Structure formats: structure tokens, C-alpha cells
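Sample entry as discussed:
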Amino acid sequence: MKLGILSWEPDELESVGIAEEARERGHDVALFTIEDIGCSAVPGGGTRPVIASVPADDFDVILSRAHVGHQNWRDTVERLHLLATVPGLLMVDTVDTHVRTVSKFAMLHQLTAAGVRVPETRSCRTLADVRAAHHDWGSVVVKPSVGFGGIDVERFLGDFTDSDIVRIEGVLAKYGEVICQRYCPHGGDTRILIIDGEPALGVQFYTSARAWKPFPGTTQEDASWDVRIEIVDPPREAVDIAARATAAMGLSYSGVDMVRVDGEYFVMEVNVVPGWDALPPDVRAIPERAVVDLLEKRFAAERVATLEHNACVCTMTGRRPSP
């Protein structure tokens, strides 16, 4: 299997670990980023998608861990769609599935339609919209629809202060429209990695009153951020919800974040590019092996389907099947 791994960023630890596991099994692996995807000219006219100057159709499988962010949305989605046009190239997961999950608006709606419990949520374009949500719910969280790492995720408890209004207006000015959710008081998030429909790993983020979200909301490390991470064996109920959420989004694998409020689990987010770089190497190896298992299984199934299709075509036309 010739595998291409589209990394979130150069030297991303998760992608490197998956690549090493795949190489140990004898697969040909190339790591690349979204900027490496482009087009070359076809003699006589036309284009051919390439990955770092290599024809994209030289690959069998692409594992997409692409970072679709607020600032690079158009460019990344355009390049992902370019790969999606390559005949016979298996993408895990497809661009439509990837983008639909990255958009929290689309993700939360799809989970709701599938019967997966999510917090009460509305879209807000103005300070008045946020005030109305705050009036109805008492405590709210404001966040961008496309984002990561807790960046610009703001919580508001009690009456709005002048500084609160400045923060809200700043987020609105940056994104134009934001998600506003009823705040669910909790002691930490549970993340469950679902790979090929099965739980691979459970992680609990224990938070404090100050560190109420698992990530500090900055691209820089915050040594004072008081969050404790523990590997856990999550309850069957939580695993079942995570598996349902992953399936509802049409994903082959994901990291499902949820909180428990008054004995009931609420899914906060389904991560199409789950991370595990903060975990010890022996623990990181668990999802790395599971992802490669998934890719091998999907590739084998794709080959069988192709052979069966070719045999069917040959039977109908009388041609000999190609080797």
C-alpha cells in the first residue's frame, strides 16, 4: 500500500507516529501538508493533481489530517477537493465528511438529527443576540464555528460586565457569526477515540474553576493552565454515544468530546483530526496501530470491490480481466 498522510502541520506527532507504524508493516509512506497539493500540466492540455510533485494517482490511500481553519478555509477545502477528483484514490475521510465535521454549525445539527444529545445552541451575529441567549440560559459559552484548541472560546457567568462586552464584540468582529451555547457546569471533558467503530482510547481532562475548558485557547503553552489528563476506561454508555456520534458524522475515526451533566452525557464536539500528542509514547501507540489497521482494512476492501467490478465488466463485454 502506498500511503500518503496529509498532516495538520509539518512534523505533527500523530502523523509521524502513524507513518512509522505503517512503515514497520512494510508500507510505502509519504508525509505532506496541504501546501504540497497542487496541479501539473498535462501535455496537450489539462491538469493532473500532484502531491509534492508526485502524481496523486501514484498513491493508493490518503489519510487526511488536514487543518481546515478559519483563516485557511478556502485554500484547504479547494486542495482537498482537488485530491477528491483522483480516480481510484481512497481518501480517509472524504472531503465532504471532513469539512462537515470541522464546521461546528453543521456538526451540531447533524448530531441533533441523529438523536445525539448536544447542548442548547443558537447562532449569534450581534451583541443583542448573545444578550438574548444569556437572558434565556443564564450562563453561556461563545465560540467560533471553525476553530481549535479553545481559541476564542469564551464563557460568561452572571451579569455581563464592560470587559465581557468587549470580549464578545471582539469575537463577533473577528468571525461575523458565532455559536452560543448554554453553559454546562462540569468537572472536565471526556474524550473517546473511536477508530473503525470501536473505542481505542479514553482520556479524561480534569479541569478547575479557572481552567474550565481542556485547552487554554492560545497557540503558546500556558504553564499555569490547571488541567490534569488521565487515561480512563469510560463507561459503556459514553462509548456508545461516542460511537453513535462518529457514525452520525460518517467518519472512519474521530475523537469525541463530551461532558456529563446531572448524570447525562452531552457531546460537545466530534474531532475529525483527533490529537494524542500529550500522551506517553506507549499510549500513543494504541491509536497509531488502530489507525493503520483501519487503513489496511479499507484498502483491502477497496481492492476487492475493484476486482469484483472489473470481473463483472469483463463478463458483460467478453474481455479478459486485467491482472
